[in-house]
């Protein structure tokens, strides 16, 4: 059984997660972030999936009900959405990642899985979990932890593992100032991906032990994993051994799109001629909600008023009416009015860009209506007064921000 932890807000995405959890944030033109972990599970042959939700989960639950309702009990499949529902105590929601599994032990037991794959629901990557499961069984490990090779300077933002020559984990520390490095490679570290494989019975024993431990934060990275490293056998599984790459993908792709700049860059990267992440790989599809909408439409062919897009992803239901898009993503149902321009812009579903508007290095939250003639991306000081502007010069625009601009005449 794959168990996806999808309860986090993702506060570093700022207003983009005011009304949705991070795993529900749109990505890549048609998908949501959580679709990557779920698709990896499905493509790996796992047909029992549970998803724990907590923070502002409505849009996430609605998406999963629409996109993932094809798993059928009569085929020995299951898909359980598990909101925090005070099942253990009327006073408690999920206290931590481990508690989000502990509170649903009875539901998991009803499916009787022999092994559990615990997943974070907020990263972009393609991975075959079956290979990690095989390593777990063959090594006799109590827990197997998915890990990335990262530079020593980056490692302080992760849980970091010290390993011996057989990939057995000898220490696990959360966000260390001086992280342990890979044996024989003093410039790199092994960082946790937040992916764990357990035998189910062993996992439940650890969760019950941890729940009875005073002072525990009920967290895998802070409590469960360090205890097993000290008292049991924990083994590292390197992402390079199970990552999925299409023929054109030159390197292993994993992104934590946890900041506005990282989210913007990962989306815009998809517009490259040969992107680092292949969303067109039919051998490892990213499953999502198949919205019923008309094909994208480009109209008008006059000088200065020509509907066209260059190096862009244009989703179904979009109308580019005498407008120009370059290195941009237009999600479902976006409309661009005549003479408008979008360059390096991520436009979430059902936005409307008014005539003569010019947008550059912008993220438009879903449903935003850009007034005619609005210019963003050419005057940094004005942009910062009106909208959320990042260190890298990316502007996030939401409905309340536009309403404020109109109301105050900014």
TrEMBL record:
CDD domains: ADP_Glucose_PP (cd02508), LbH_G1P_AT_C (cd04651). The record marks 54, 93 as: Could play a key role in the communication between the regulatory and the substrate sites. Pathway: Glycan biosynthesis; glycogen biosynthesis. Residues 294-397 form the Glucose-1-phosphate adenylyltransferase/Bifunctional protein GlmU-like C-terminal hexapeptide domain. It comes from the Bacteria. It is an enzyme of class 2 (transferase). NCBIfam families: glgC (TIGR02091), PRK00725.1 (NF001947), PRK00844.1 (NF002023). PANTHER family: GLUCOSE-1-PHOSPHATE ADENYLYLTRANSFERASE, GLUCOSE-1-PHOSPHATE ADENYLYLTRANSFERASE-RELATED. This is Glucose-1-phosphate adenylyltransferase. It comes from Novosphingobium nitrogenifigens DSM 19370. The lineage of its organism: Bacteria, Pseudomonadati, Pseudomonadota, Alphaproteobacteria, Sphingomonadales.
